[in-house]
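hiii so um. not sure if this is the right channel but i have a protein structure encoded as tokens and i wanna go backwards to a sequence. like what aa goes where. can anyone help
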């Protein structure tokens, strides 16, 4: 057993002459600290602002959340902590051949920083021809990097708009079709 010689100095005070190297900054981030994935558990047909029903956190084989989960109420998602968050919204569309074409099938990410007024911050759209005799589908994705400075006021919602009300977003409780992934990627 080695003996360490001590003096009257406090254990919290270090002599700077014995330190070597670089002390890391308080403001660095060491990777993703929180990540969760949600999906539609059933189809949503027609326009929806917000998409308020059929949300569930992924529970498929092998899924693992990092950190705390997002919470959701009537399609409004709240963040478990402040930070810079990457939001990824993947849409899987359906339309029936008998319904005809559907132009301008659009998904949006909308955010608020005051828990009241929402701003459309990311959008994409596609076209489903609805011809050829078979039911059709399509997909696309949109992303947004959101600085969540206050968990009580910074929230996000998702909406969809379709030209043909027989068109909608595909959902399933066993496989990911339409999903939203939330990843905390840094400090605010």
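sure thing!! here u go:
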């Amino acid at each position: 057993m080695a003996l360490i010689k001590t003096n009257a100095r406090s254990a919290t005070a270090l002599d700077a002459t014995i330190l070597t190297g670089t002390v890391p900054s308080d403001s660095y981030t060491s990777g993703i600290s929180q990540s969760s994935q949600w999906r539609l558990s059933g189809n949503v047909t027609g326009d929806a602002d917000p998409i308020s029903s059929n949300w569930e956190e992924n529970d498929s084989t092998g899924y693992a959340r990092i950190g705390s989960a997002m919470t959701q109420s009537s399609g409004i998602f709240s963040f478990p902590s402040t930070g810079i968050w990457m939001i990824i919204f993947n849409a899987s569309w359906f339309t029936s051949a008998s319904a005809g074409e559907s132009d301008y099938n659009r998904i949006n990410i909308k955010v608020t920083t005051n828990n009241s007024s929402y701003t459309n911050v990311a959008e994409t759209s596609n076209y489903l021809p609805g011809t050829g005799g078979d039911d059709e589908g399509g997909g696309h994705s949109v992303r947004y990097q959101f600085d969540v400075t206050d968990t009580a006021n910074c929230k996000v919602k998702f909406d969809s708009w379709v030209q043909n009300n027989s068109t909608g977003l595909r959902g399933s409780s066993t496989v990911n079709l339409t999903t939203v992934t939330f990843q905390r990627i840094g400090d605010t």
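oh and The CA atoms of residues 82 and 148 lie 5 Å apart.
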